[in-house]
Amino acid sequence: MSNPHLKDELRLGTRASLLALRQANWVKSELEEIHSGLKVNLVHITTTGDKLDIPLFKEGGKGLFVKEIEEALLRGEVDLAVHSAKDLPAFIPEGLMLMAFPRREDPRDVLISREGKRWSEIPGGGRVGTGSLRRSAQLLSLRPDLKIIPLRGNLDTRIRKLSTLQLDAVVLASAGLRRLGWEDRISEYFEPEVMLPAIGQGVLAIEGRRRDERVHQLVAPLTHYPTAVSLMAERAFLKGLEGGCQVPIAGFAKVESDRVVLTGLVAEVDGQKVIRGRVEGSLEKSEELGKHLAEELLAKGAGDILREV
């Protein structure tokens, strides 16, 4: 039920990319449907990540798509923001908090190839595009015979580069393609056992000011509890490794009945060495599980990889 005392307007900060606007408009429509009388206005904000034309890991990695939006939140210019959770750095700025997490979209990575070829059909020496060190390391671990081509740009730009850069395939997140209705372009899905997703892949995170109880109450109904539990486990794992975009780190948690199962990995950039681990436990201890898995991988040698990179 809508709370009559919360009827008002909200300013929602978002990037202006096709996918970011699709995600922001979805949150806008959901909030306006839940709270009759509420008006959500989108505020377009250009981030550092939008201006770069080189792979993100070369410019400091995570946070480049959220920094300016978080600064606008802190200045009071917007009331909430919608992020792809995989773009968020391990630590949220003082004064802000992640308030809500809608149901997770498909977390898997996918292959989009010329002529719909499957992964195994790409010839040796084939050119595969990705802007992610995590994907690159896992691809090279699976197929060291491939040539990885660094990609930048929004989803539509990266798909276009399949032709303009004469690539055999590109690897992207399923979630973005599904949200844009572009599933028909997918040649093959990578199961998490083959290609472990990024921390938070497929999750939308709604961020606001820590003391803004009004916004917290408005967005709370959007939270999907299993998604929130999974994301907290994954982000605790990331925090435990103090990782960003400069290191191939992957983590994926899923809720099975009353348990959460978390798998994580740290890899060398060339995919020569991949350290994996898996933990499971009760839903209430999801963050402890993430921390425990980070400690386990560090003990297995992940710390050496992190220091080298």
- The CATH class of the largest domain is identified as Alpha Beta
CATH architecture of the largest domain, by name, is 3-Layer(aba) Sandwich
Strand content: 15-25%
According to CATH, the homologous superfamily of the largest domain is Periplasmic binding protein-like II
Question: How many strands, which pairing sense, and closed or not: the largest β-sheet?
Answer: 5 strands, mixed
Low-confidence stretches at least 5 residues in length (pLDDT < 50)? 1-6, 54-60
What is the gyration radius calculated from CA atoms?
Answer: 19 Å
Helix content: 25-40%
Number of domains: 3
Query: What string gives the helices and strands in order?
Result: EHEHHEEEEHEHEHEEHHEEEH
Structural class designation: alpha/beta
What's the total count of β strands? 13
Straight-line N-to-C gap: 50 Å
Which strand order does the major sheet show? 2-1-3-10-4
Give the integer mean of the pLDDT values.
90
CATH fold-type name of the largest domain: D-Maltodextrin-Binding Protein, domain 2
Backbone shape: globular
Helix count from the secondary structure assignment = 9
Topology:
Blueprint: E1 9-14, H1 18-34, E2 39-44, H2 48-51, H3 67-75, E3 80-84, E4 96-100, E5 109-113, E6 127-130, H4 133-142, E7 147-150, H5 155-164, E8 169-173, H6 174-179, E9 188-190, E10 204-209, H7 213-219, H8 225-241, E11 249-256, E12 259-267, E13 274-282, H9 286-308
Parallel strand pairs: 1-2, 1-3, 6-7, 6-8
Antiparallel strand pairs: 3-10, 4-10, 5-8, 5-9, 11-12, 12-13
